[in-house]
Amino acid sequence: MTRYRVAIIGTGAIANLHIQALKEMKERVEVVAAVDVLRDRVEAYSREHAIPRFYTDAAQMLEREHPDLVHIATPPNTHYDLIIRSLESGAWVLCEKPLCTSLAEIDHILTVEQQTGTYCSSVFQWRFGSGSQHLKQLIQTEAFGRPLVGMCLTTWFRDHAYYQVPWRGKWSTEGGGPTMGHGIHAMDLFLWLLGDWEEVSAMTGTLDREIEVEDVSLAIVRFNNRALGSIVNSVLS
Predict the structure, then answer these.
(1) Radius of gyration for the alpha carbons in the chain, expressed in angstroms and rounded
(2) How far apart are CA 54 and CA 39, in angstroms?
(3) Consecutive sets of 10 residues in the chain, 237 residues long: mean pLDDT of each?
(4) Is the Cα torsion angle 43, 49, 54, 59 positive or negative in sign?
(5) Does domain 4-123 have CATH number 3.40.50.720?
(6) CATH class for domain 128-234?
(7) Is the CB of residue 186 less than 8 Å from the CB of residue 155?
C-alpha cells in the first residue's frame, strides 16, 4: 500500500483537527513537515506531534520535502498563493475554506490543476456525514416527492472578542463575514442536495459588530429544478 508524504501549512487551532485525522490514517500517510510563520508555534506543534521537520517558509518546505499532499490551515488571505505554489510543486492540496476570494482566482486554480495534473479540494465535510448522504438519496429517489422549498440557516453567535483576532472581520484578510466564513458549509450542503441555482436575490448588513465585513446576510434562491430556498447567515444570533 502506498504511503503518502504529507505536509501541514499553518499550525494554529484548526491544524490540530488535521493532524488528528492524519494520525488515524497512519498506515496511508506520513506527516513529514509542518510550516508556520511563527517559529515557536511550529516548533512546539512539530514536537508535540512527532513531525520530523518544521519550516517558517512554505516555498522552502515544498522545494526540500516534495510532499504528495499539502494541508493548508492558514488564514483565508493566504490560501490562494499557497494553493498555487503547492499545485505547481506537484502536490495535491486539501485547503480550509474559502479556497480564495475571487472568481478569477478560482479560475486560475482550475487552470493550474489542468496544467499540472494535480487537484485541490476544500474542507466541505458536511457532504460526507451519514445523515447528509441519506438525505441526498431520499431526494434523488423522490422518496418524499419533488423538493419544493428549502431553508439554509447558519444562525450563530460570535461576540466582539471573537473579532479581536487580527485577521478576522477584514476584507483584505478574511475575505468576507459569516457568508464566507461560517455559512459556507451549510450553503455547500444546500447546493449539493438541491442542485445548481439559477437566480439569487441577496442582502447583507453590518448591524452590530465593529468590523469591515457583514455580520449578517440573507438570500432567496431559485434552483434549476424550480425549488425555492431561503438562506440566512448570521453571527448575531
Answers:
(1) 19
(2) 9
(3) 95 97 96 98 98 98 98 97 98 96 96 98 94 96 94 97 96 94 96 95 97 98 96 97
(4) negative
(5) yes
(6) alpha beta
(7) no
